[in-house]
Amino acid sequence: MMKRFREKLVASRVVALRAGHHREPLGIGTPQPPLSWQIETDEAGWTQTAYEISVQSDTDVADTDIDEAGTGEASTEATGRISSAEQVLVPWPSEPLTSRQRRLVRVRVWGQNNQNNQDNQDNESPSDWSAPLTVEAGLLHPADWVGQLVAADLPLPADADGPAVLLRREFLVPAAPVSARLYVTALGAYEMELNGRRVADQVLAPGWTSYQHRLRYQSFDVTDLVREGANAVGGWLADGWYRGRLGFQGGLRAVYGPQTALLAQLEVHCADGSTVVVGTDSLWRSAASAIVATGLYDGEHYDARAEQPGWSAPGFADADWSPVLVQAFELERLVAPDGPPVRRTELIAPRSIGASPSGASIVDFGQNITGRLRIRVRGEAGQVVRLRHAEVLEDGELCVRPLRSALATDEYTLRGGGQEEWEPRFTLHGFRYAEVTGWPGELTADDLEAVVCHTDMARTGWFECSQPLLERLHENVLWSMRGNFVDVPTDCPQRDERLGWTGDLAVFAPTATFLYDSAGLLTSWLADLAAEQEEFGTVPYYVPWLDLIGPAQPTAVWGDAAVVVPWVLFERYADLGVLRAQYPSMRAWVDQVAAIAGENRLWDTGFQFGDWLDPASPPDRPAAARTDPHLVATAALAGSARLLAKVAALLGEDTDHRHYTELATQVGAAFNDEFVTPNGRLANDAQTAYALALTGELVEKTDQRERAGRRLVELVAAEGYHVGTGFAGTPLICDALTTIGAQDTAYRLILQRDCPSWLYPVTMGATTIWERWDSLLPDGSVNPGEMTSFNHYAFGAVADWLHRTVAGLAPGAPGYRQVIVRPRPGGGLTHAAATHNSPYGRIRVAWRRLSSAEAGTQTGRLDVEVTVPPGVTARIELPAASFVPVEIGSGQHRFSCSFGDPADDPIDYPTNDPLQP
Which of 2, 83, 388, 471 has a CA between 20 and 30 Å from the CA of residue 134? Predict the structure, then answer.
């Protein structure tokens, strides 16, 4: 018996050890990062009962020097066995990290098989130690910096995109380098080089933050790039978000300052015990680069004839370079990143190359992306190749009107003398098509490729089903997230905007956190939100904030991102820390709106975006929705107060919990009195009004709620099962229908193919989610509205319903510690599945429907397969009255129940409905 137990435990492995939300825990800014791990085991029902963490503090001991017990020649701390089932965001068990400190962490666990308890008498036998995780702190204090902020002594244009400049310095290393770290940031965008080689693979570093409050620095291990003897370090520096043009209606330039600047610090530890520190200072030199002009909106112009070969290598003659200018800077603003950087994540070859009516080459990459082109070209010196980008074609030419004032044009001037390869450094475009002019010779598919760029998040979510159009819709949602999560969650990647609109993220956050591990990016963005909320007195419409349209005003849904997004991060990642950090911001927002609502508890004053982009709104009036914006605002206040009450309880703020619970109750009652008739009709007889009321529990009485549900079904049917919602209602409409038992109506809505609908863009060839339901009109022409993006993720928020309801995989406890498996098949679908890499491991729900003939029964059958990782339980609720809900543990499980034949599903317009009286 004892031997059998030991053999089973050995099969349990600790994997995916992680510090905080960091994919790469190098240069982190958290002295005590919480630890998370997953467990792989061959045993169903296995659960962790205890863990031990080993922390090795000697920075010079290699991973292989740790013996099997987790100890070695270096100084090692071990927690000893801690009886606990916790494995996600477990508190750091050792002394806080100090600046630059590197520690190696390992974990081992004890567990038991709850399905066979008699085998679990010996809990003294742990798993093997996990593979070590190296955790290294960055520069945690301003005093750690000796580098100074320096700028090139070169004029920058006040009313145009600036050139990129080069900065360099040479230095000596007296002995073989043992380790080397480069800490760097910029006012602008930078790329670093050491001894002629590029440092790392980040794009547009350090990214976009609220620079007046927070500036991120990056840490790089450059040990392999430094050598004994002469060395050189250099950097490219461009406008980026700091100084470049930002925003619509002409935008603003130099929002944060008129001068780009670099701050870098290289620290080299040598074999002889010496340390070399090279910081940016007055000894650096600067010069113009071959990038003549570069901007995020208008593109990059590169003259290869102006290149300076060897400029970042030792021995380069820089006598004609200019000294740099040392700038004053508040080092207190520096913070380490919370999430991964922007990187090149994929290369896409051309699908086709054709000619436009004007004679230009048009390259179709088959997918709307955010990124740029990489070209390989031969030609004479001085030949200019022009690359222009757009999302769609109109009459065979690039349709650039939706770009507004963004030129989205890159130019490359050849140096001549052989094959040349080029990719822009400091610009990104949103595009599917590229127009190429000035190409020497015939353009072929081997000459260029599209480089996809976005924040390098790990993908965590998948969906599949028997309806190809629905699968393509989900793929479009995925691509829109990829195209818009570029350091901040933007609205669109192509035109003169690309702002972190709060309302877009408020509705999309549940989908985003399922598809990708976006905790780090969103935690950083929320820190900016809180900082700007404090500075400007409210949650701005977008973060970082630019004063493009006057002072920010409190607006529902958009401002509610301050409450909704932290809650979603807690729900999906079990991160109490983000709630604790954002709690003052959350309270400030709800308190501000409650004061506006006053004693009547109705938010019925001030500007509102309302149900933005309701399909009935005119092209030039996107806020002119069918639903009263103050109904939307009051419903949003009730929802945020309710969430804040939950957060207060979790944080032990009992007085606040009581206060915000009462506030939510009062606002809900006021909503019911003002907007709900005694018969359950809403003051606004519109889909969004009912969706908000039903999902927000704002209809008090059962008979009112039943009538409101019937009326919502009637409205959807009366509109031919077309979408009738904008930003506020779209994430909720299918949930509202499902909640009242009208999932057949929800399926008819989601499977509608005529405009307006989710599948209409798919039938029109969309590869991303559109900003408008009809961004492309049925005749193939582009919507005449000024706002017409073909890559906007907000309406893709419905994917969360696909995951939770169609496939049936929903979080039941923070971090997916419990999963609710509640599939609700319909719409003629014969199978569907969702997979999510949760903090505990991979969860999968897959179902298949059998017809009565296939099942050999009078009715059809539903077969469900569920995969649950250790540490997670699942509650199974299948849609059959005879099925008794059951709670299961880890492992692979199968369930079946009687269910209707797929062929009997009402797919087209119905003749009856179960909720009709």
Answer: 83
